[in-house]
Write a structure and sequence with these properties.
It contains 10 helices and 12 strands. With about 260 residues, it is α/β, with parallel strands linked by helices.
Length: about 260
């Protein structure tokens, strides 16, 4: 059975508001997350991703409330990431209405977290968010290094090797974000997507760099099962329907648009 390509808006949330910048800096307000989620649901988004990009204690309860309000408003799958450090954190988010949770920094620092979450809740709820950047000539075989803390800290770890390990530990999906391309609207990092697809046996979501309609199809052709974007949707440059129509015209299966 052919699986439809998913189109996923990403809501970077801090302090209860959606923000967007370039390479995770120079953030500007993009709106209320619950209202934006409602609009994207009505426009035909296949899923929504919420990332708490600060994940500090003063906004943690805000994030749970945003998830609760969103889950009451929309009926498409919701992935929530940012600051997840324990099985208890996952349990609280799932009870608040999340369908999947994304782990990043905490899993890099303690990979056993992946084992614990997948054992408790199953691989289907666990997404590994990988913020990777190009590091040619630095002894990293794939040429892509894993970063943590919102892309601010290099780890010296090879992204392809880390993804293989994480899948082996029980991750059910990879959210691959190019830190070099994030927010630039210069196109997805196709080399990074292809390198990941070559070693990744679970669904792969491409993130970082979408700037125009022509950027999405090459990402799918490079190996992405889903395409995620933020700025182009938040600020009205593109609509979900336009992306789906373009992917369908290129021969990729997409889920039917709502009428």
């Amino acid at each position: 059975m052919t699986v439809a390509v998913r189109v996923i808006p990403c809501l970077d949330v801090t302090g209860g508001r959606v923000v967007k910048g370039v390479n995770f800096v120079d953030l500007r307000d993009a709106g209320d997350p619950v209202e934006m989620a409602r609009i994207y649901d009505a426009e035909g988004a296949d899923e929504l991703t919420f990332l708490d990009i600060t994940a500090s204690s003063d906004v943690r309860e805000t994030t749970y409330e945003v998830v609760r309000r969103t889950a009451e408003t929309v009926f498409i799958p919701l992935t929530v990431g940012g600051g997840i450090r324990s099985v208890r954190d996952v349990d609280r988010l799932l009870r608040a209405g999340a369908d999947k949770v994304g782990v990043n920094t905490a899993a890099v620092l303690r990979p056993e977290l992946i084992d614990e979450i997948s054992a408790e809740f199953g691989s289907q709820v666990l997404v590994l968010s990988v913020d990777a950047r190009r590091v040619p000539g630095q002894g990293i075989p794939s040429g892509f290094e894993v970063t943590t803390h919102g892309g601010r800290t290099g780890t010296g770890r090879d992204a392809s090797a880390w993804i293989c390990e994480a899948v082996g530990r029980g991750v059910g999906e990879i959210l691959l974000n190019s830190m070099d391309a994030d927010g630039t609207r210069a196109g997805y990092d196709l080399d990074m997507i292809a390198a990941t697809r070559a070693v990744c046996s679970v669904p792969l979501v491409a993130s970082g760099g979408a700037g125009q309609l022509a950027d999405f199809e090459p990402a799918v052709a490079a190996g992405a099962d889903a395409v995620l974007a933020a700025s182009v949707f938040h600020f009205g440059q593109l609509r979900i329907a336009e992306v789906k129509v373009a992917l369908g015209a290129a021969g990729h299966p997409v889920r039917r648009l709502r009428t």
